[in-house]
Each structure stands twice: as C-alpha cells, then as structure tokens.
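Ticket closed. Logging final result for S-adenosylmethionine:tRNA ribosyltransferase-isomerase.
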Amino acid sequence: MTSTDLFDYELPENLIAQRPLEKRDQSRMMILARETRKITDGMFTSFPDYLRKGDTLVINTTKVFPARLLGSRKTGGKVEALLIRGWGNGLWSAMIGGLKKLNRGETIYFGDGEAFVKEKHSGGYALLQFESEKESIRLTQRFGDIPLPPYINRPGSVADKADKKRYQTVFADSIGSCAAPTAGLHFTDEALTLIQAHGVRVAEVVLHVGPGTFRPVRASNIEDHEMDAEAFHVPEETVKMIEETKNNGGRVVAVGSTSTRALESLSVADGKTLPCSGSTRLFITPGYRFKLVDAMLTNFHLPKSTLLMLVCAFARREFVLRAYAHAVSEKYRFFSYGDAMLIV
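Final structure:
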C-alpha cells in the first residue's frame, strides 16, 4: 500500500495565484528533464523551443460552462447545485450542498425555472431532472455562474467578469466542464500559430473536467481512492495523428493532466490505437506505464491530489517533489492561475 502522505508538501498561502497574469503567455515555466534529473527555470514564451518538428501537441478543447446554480426550496431554504454531467433530455448529475435535507422528488427553484431531485447518492451527488435539455441550458446561461476552485477567493465565491474570460482556454469549444484544463490557460492564438510553424501538429481531445479535480485524496492509502467518472472523447483524426507521430519517431506532448488521461484511457493493442468516447475513471499513480504520452505540460497541483500523483507517475515522486520545493523557494505561482511545468 502507498501512503497518501508521500504526496504532501508545504505551500505558503501567498503562492496560490489569485489572479491570472495580464498576458496569458507571460507565466514562468519550470522544465524538468527526466533523463538527467535537471531542473531549469524559464518562461512559457520559450515553450515552442522545446518542441521538435514532427511532434504532436495534444490539447483539451473542453469549455467551462456556468455550472453553478443557486436555488431555493419551497420552504425558502437556499440550495447550491453544481452541474457535472448531462445525460440528455434535461437529466444532470450534480453535486448539491445540503443534499441530506432534500427529499427524493423534491423541486428546487432556479430563477424562473425548476428541477426535481430524481435520485440521491452518497457524497453529495444527485440526479437532477429539468423540464428539458433546452431548459437546463437556458437556466445555466441566464442564472448560472462559472464555478471557481475553492482556493480562488472572490466576494461571494462568484466569478467576476475577468474570470469569465480568463478561466477559459482560447481553444475552448466543447461545453461540458465545471473546471478549466488549466495547463491550456497559458496559450494564446499566436503561440499556437508559432508552434505549428515549427512543424508541430496540434491534435484535439475532449475530457470534461469534474469537481474531483479540486479534491485532495482523503484515503490514507492511494489504492483506496476512487476517481470520479469523467466524460471524454478522442476522435479518429487525433488517433491517426498520434499513430503517424509515433511511427515517424516524433513525440506526443500532452497539454495538461486531462489530455494525458484522455489519451491514456485509449485502448492500445498490437501497435494500434482505437478512437473512443465514453467515461474514464483512470487513476494514474507511480508504477503506471504510459502508453502514448512522451512529454507533458502541466501546472503546479494541490498537495495529496490525484493530479500531483499523475505527475509523480510520469517523472518519479522524489524528482517531482524536489522540483516543487524548488518552485516554493523561487516563489513560483501555484494552481489554476499559476505557472507552468514542462516535463520532457
């Protein structure tokens, strides 16, 4: 068994980035060379220099939507719901504050609309049934808020005008996330154009990020932790690009843990990779053998989080925690609006 405490580290609160930098691509970037165990301090603007002609960069084009709905019960009691995944016809998986007080079948009023509690599950999860799919989208667009991670402080915990623009990647396209794929926040349209001019192809995947990305692992041993299911899609075109890249000696460079998990959730057999859509609960921990990802761009993650464990699996725990200690001493900015780490 592997203790969760092995993935803990000390982080001064003042290093948690509360606001994005004025320009997306002005973040610092730490470079970790796995083979030499060398740590280099740099800037994200140098990211294209670490790519090679023939590489494929994989981005997650999921889009954060106003998934946080504030509602009320018939009694007047307040209810907060975070919509996580839509199943069609107005049915949504949701995380609901104070779910224990709600009854199955009870109606919750959101603005000028409503939904009822169809099912209650453990951990604050439930199924909410809206009148229709169209109605659920209308309510989120009119009354919903962009959900922010709990470590970003805003009055009333509500995203402001700047967050609505910056807590979203420039390539966000597929609506469905309640959290941003934060490694992608550093990119500008100009950076992507420059990368492609270097002879690097850009491939797309979708993994809709759920609230589990915010939570530290509570189990004493990581083997006892269960990942939340997240919807993902890797199109045939992306699979073809990856196979061509591998066959020609190029590298697959994943932007973020979400792109990594989407790619590693694919089935690979006899040198063939199959396109796939569905749900993934893939929990990548030290000892995992990566099938497709050769390099990774990521942010600095929460202590004891599944994201930190994934990074430790990719670059070895001791090396990663040494890099994190270096980041603290050099005052890197941490978490969603923070700086980047490139692992090659």
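Residues 4-64+164-343 form a domain with the QueA-like fold (CATH 3.40.1780.10). No further action required.
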